[in-house]
Amino acid sequence: MKKIFFLLLGLALVTAYASSAAAAVSLKRLAEHPFSPPLTSVTEFQTMVEQNKSDLQDGFTRAGYPELYPEFMAQLPDAEVETIQVDPGDQFIWMLFRNKFTGRVKVLKDVTWAGDQPFEAYRFYIDSEGQRYEFLVPPICGNVTLANVGPVPAKVVPAPAPAPPPVAPAPVAPAPEPAVQLKGGPVFDIGLAQQFDPASYVFARIGYAYPLLDQLYIMGLVGGFIRFAGDDGGDAFTADALLNYHFTDRVFAGAGVGYWSDEDEVDLIVNLGYLIYERPDSFKTSLFIEGRCFADDLISSEAARLGVGVRFQF
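Above: the chain sequence. Below: its structure as tokens.
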């Protein structure tokens, strides 16, 4: 019964957290999902754009503006870029950012700045087919943002002369969406576990995590449990396979199977974790709880082991 209680408690916490995270909210903080490192000048911004052409083209396509991308790249080098303040309550049509886990470009639409203070942003305009597109880029995160669309202001000339009819630009075919390369990485676990029989263990495992989708990871781990207290069970070699789903950028949960050598048994495993530290594209640290019991002895609380640990991903 203890094992069932802990499993139900973990599932309840995950469900509550995922429900609250799914609700639509206004943007209150910048740089949580940066498109690039912080920018210190307009020159750095223009260099960042040149170095991220394919990702920007992907973002414009996802936002529904593929035909605007060629004009954006052609006009930006000569565009007049000024620094402005964006006030709380200002609204934007869309904003590009990167997923923390995969680096894939994402689009946030119908954005309202709901922070407590204004923030600085670079502003410039791109003209296309009689429309003027106002773009903003906060230097703190490099997120390219479409703020507004309106007609191109009429030019005032001293003595207007008849002009030939404008030549319509050739239609631009939407660019195919580039394939996204999902990357895996090594994993190392260390922690403590308690068997209800009783017995106490320290454990360590090493393995590899690979993303099947943006938020779904498969993980293989091998390691061992060493008993340091208690009078039942012994040291065991383990080989585990887990499938984890990331409900948010920080919370994940999953299940899998494992091998427990001391009893030559197959375990059923559930786990729940929380990301506590991340160095983008380099290193992540998470806390997790894990329950495991023999697959052929689910109703016996003495066969269950509950552990807590730290997971390092590289």
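Residues 4-24 have pLDDT under 50 and may be disordered.
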